[in-house]
Amino acid sequence: GKPPNLFAFQGLDDLAPSLRAYILDAQKSALDRHHVFRVALSGGSLPKVLARALLDEKNGEGVIQYDKWEIFFADERAVPLDHEDSNYRLVKQEILDKIPQQLGKPTVYSIDVKYLDDVQEMADQYEKTLVSVFAARDSVKLPMFDLLLLGCGPDGHTCSLFPGSPLLRELDAWVLSISDSPKPPPKRITLSLPVTQHGIKIAFIATGGGKKDIMKEIFDTEEGQQLPCGLINSAAQERVSWFVDHPAIEGVSFP
Ligand code: 6PG
Q1: Which of 138, 185, 204, 241 suits a disulfide with 5, CB 3.0-4.6 Å?
Q2: What pTM value is reported for the model?
């Protein structure tokens, strides 16, 4: 079915300002609530689209208060931070390095490369970092990100949660490791499904004709609801927004 918050645009030129407004709104609620803005980012095509939304002054009013941002990785590849497969490197190159100095610097929680040889330990350490941030005062069952910005792969994966993976059944851990990712590189860490579903706001960004089959499956079929993107979409309901372009939803009928 048609998700409650579907924002469809001709292309990136009109998607970017709308995504910026959405992020500013999420930032405002977060700062009103607890004076920081905790955001989880994916890799793939997302950092480039996000850069368009954040960095282009033409995109409208409102100040991005980067110094209040705490950036986490929704998933990350177990590679050095300057490696071409690193999501950190991508976010740094596309966004962090381009933020005008006077706007301040976000706090960025990257993986600890000490654990490159032991991806489970890397996941445990990243989880410890999340515990220190999200459960510093009280014990909490799940961390609550103010905003998760996610992609949706052509097979319906999101973060590094792939269709049919046993990781989808994990209920307690916050961060999981994967050693045989179907999408290279094989070793990764990822937020668990319940953590993604628990976000205060969750945005999927899917652009380009390469997404139209998976969009059809997620929105037009029962089976699509069982794919990782579908599982987040149906659990989080009106907390989820989709930012798509017309090629990505071409032929989707939203029954
Ligand atoms: C990764 C990404 C991944 C991505 C999807 C969609 O590290 O592989 O975080 O989860 O978001 O694969 O990627 P595209 O947006 O490039 O299709």
Answers
A1: 241
A2: 0.97
Residue 86 lies inside a defined structural domain of this protein: yes
Q: pLDDT tens digit string along 227-244?
A: 999 999 999 999 999 999
Burial track 72-110 (b if 16+ CB lie within 10 A, e otherwise): bbbbbbbbeeeeebbbbbbbbebbbeebeeeeeebeebb
Domain around 159:
6-249
Position in ligand 1 atom list of the atom nearest CA 46: 15
pLDDT of residue 255 exceeding 70, the answer is: no
CA of 177 to the centre of ligand 1 (A): 16
Q: Output the CA 46–ligand 1 centroid distance in Å.
A: 7
Cis-peptide, bond into residue 163, ω within 30° of zero: no
Nearest CA to ligand 1 atom 17: 153
Domain assignment present for residue 255? The answer is: no
- Does any domain span residue 1? no
CA of 44 to the centre of ligand 1 (A): 4
Nearest atom, ligand 1, residue 76 CA? 7
Does a structural domain hold residue 254?
no
How high is the pLDDT of residue 4? 86
Distance of CA 43 from the midpoint of ligand 1 (Å): 5
Of the pLDDT bands very low, low, confident and very high (cuts 50, 70, 90), residue 50 is: very high
Q: Is the pLDDT of residue 222 over 90?
A: yes
How many domains does one find in the chain? 1
pLDDT at 60 over 70: no
CATH at 243: 3.40.50.1360
